[in-house]
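Lecture 7 notes: from sequence to structure.

We start with a single chain of 199 residues. Read the sequence below before looking at the structure.
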Amino acid sequence: TAIAEWFRDKGAKVVFMMDSTTRFARAQREIGLAVGEPPARQGYPPSVFAMLPRLLERTGNSATGSITALYTVLVAGGDMEEPISDEVRGILDGHIILNRALGARNHWPAIDVLPSLSRVMSGVATEEHKQAAAKLREVLATYEKQRDLILLGAYQYGTDPRTDYAIDKIEPVEEFLRQRTEDNTPFDETIARLIALFE
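Now the structure, written as tokens:
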């Protein structure tokens, strides 16, 4: 982080990537426990939760430059309520949640849109973009709620208009959310495709 800060102070726009915040927290846990700190949340001493904001909040804009940071967090067993991921989610402006089940369905990138979040989207996206994104999330949420009934054939089409709409839209939505590693789509084109899904 100190190197990124040096470049930011020289007027640069820095992209900083740290893999992984969890390993940083585990190392601090070992140090804290070794010096006699009491274990708190799931064995992590209080110093871990004091150091995380001091580390993560060093990035961002300054008068001369900026640091855009990407931090990875390893989550044991997919437990999003474990203390490190919970703490990091509370500090950062957004999070992208990856889901093994999506990868198992050959859905790449395996981004789970529903629990993922951007706290700055309302300030940087157009109204049209925000509305289309909200519709996409609504389709995914409605379909996920009824997924078992739909896959078992127990849902009767025509019973609920929102579920019917989700069934009609789920294939184009999932196709939109898939991307091969060699694909390079400009941002404006991606937004246009998103908006077109719901026209």
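The radius of gyration is 21 Å. Keep this in mind for problem set 3.
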